[in-house]
Prior knowledge:
Mean pLDDT: 75
Family: Belongs to the NAD(P)-dependent epimerase/dehydratase family.
CATH superfamily: UDP-galactose 4-epimerase, domain 1
Protein name: Putative UDP-arabinose 4-epimerase 3
Number of strands: 8
Radius of gyration: 18 Å
Shape: globular
Keywords: Membrane, Transmembrane, Transmembrane helix
CATH architecture: Alpha-Beta Complex
Pfam family, one: GDP_Man_Dehyd
Distance between the termini: 32 Å
CATH class: Alpha Beta
Strand order of the largest sheet: 1-6
Amino acid sequence: MSDRWHRDPLRYLAFAAIVSTVVYYVHFSGPSPTAPYEIPDFNPRELLQPEPGAMHIVVTGGAGYIGSHAAMVLAGQGHAITSRISGACMDAALGLVDSLTVKGTKHPTEDGTCVRDYVHVMDLVSAHVTGVRHLANPPPLFNIGTGKGVSVKQFVDACRKVTGREIKVVMQEEARPGDYAAVWSEVGKIKRELGWSANYTDVEEGLRHAWRWREAHPNGY
């Protein structure tokens, strides 16, 4: 890929652009997203349909991301006070907010809360490094994740355990508009075609790495 990049960099530039926009991916049952947070992910996929031979791209979709780099130069959260569950848990653990609100407690899941897939930021990086070696036109599409789901309640319990802090949790029965009950990445294709799979599949381990970073950077980068 390196030689092709140097010969014609603009043909391979779209990969970096798509990485910055992909936040979350679900399998859409219809022609359009059903939840607001899916829109930043969905639109680029619809727009990035290059003319034959014009540009080589790989399109990736990630699960919710957690963790940090071993040297703490990269983390899944770059700023304090966030609505994402991973950052919100730690905001509450640090006392930056009074409580953590779990939205949706009547879903048809084991404990009533949403089930989601959480990928470690280092796995996210390694998947993109692997993907950039497989640019094509038309662009291939790969899901990035662990391939298994963790409920919001399980996530909060893991965060309490990792931080050792008592986190006040407000259980809100009403869910966010458009929230699916259970979503996780189907990772068979990326494993089969690119040989990639997540190394960090234990949510507690990812949260332990994230917590180490947040304690060192309570106000973000």
